[in-house]
């Protein structure tokens, strides 16, 4: 009986212990460039989408020209999607005049002892 087995596991591990079933899944990263309209208003907003990863505690960080970013960053909490996998996003904002001097931006995803995963966007690949 399934319910009895669940109750038995709950009693064994306790209500606050997390039992993870399954293995880590590396998310797919996509870096979206700033829009032309936004650049004309003086701001460059880049978005890193991390899609279909597991577990939910992957961290996203930005590098600008290979160094950790000092610009404003924000991150969305993980959203559980189909297949019990999570998706996240991180946003990097910098002045348009600084974006014009940037060679590349990299979004890096890390989780525990996993090897970091990254996606790089070169500014010269963007149409402006």
TrEMBL record:
A Pfam entry, by short name: C1-set
Source taxon at top rank: Eukaryota
Record domain Ig-like: where: 27-118
Organism of this sequence: Gasterosteus aculeatus aculeatus (three-spined stickleback)
UniProt KW keywords: Immunoglobulin domain
Name the record gives this protein: Ig-like domain-containing protein
InterPro entries: Ig-like_dom, Ig-like_dom_sf, Ig-like_fold, Ig_C1-set, Immune_Resp_Modulators
Gene3D superfamilies, A to Z: Immunoglobulins
PANTHER family registered for this protein in UniProt: TAPASIN (PTHR23411)
Coiled coil: none
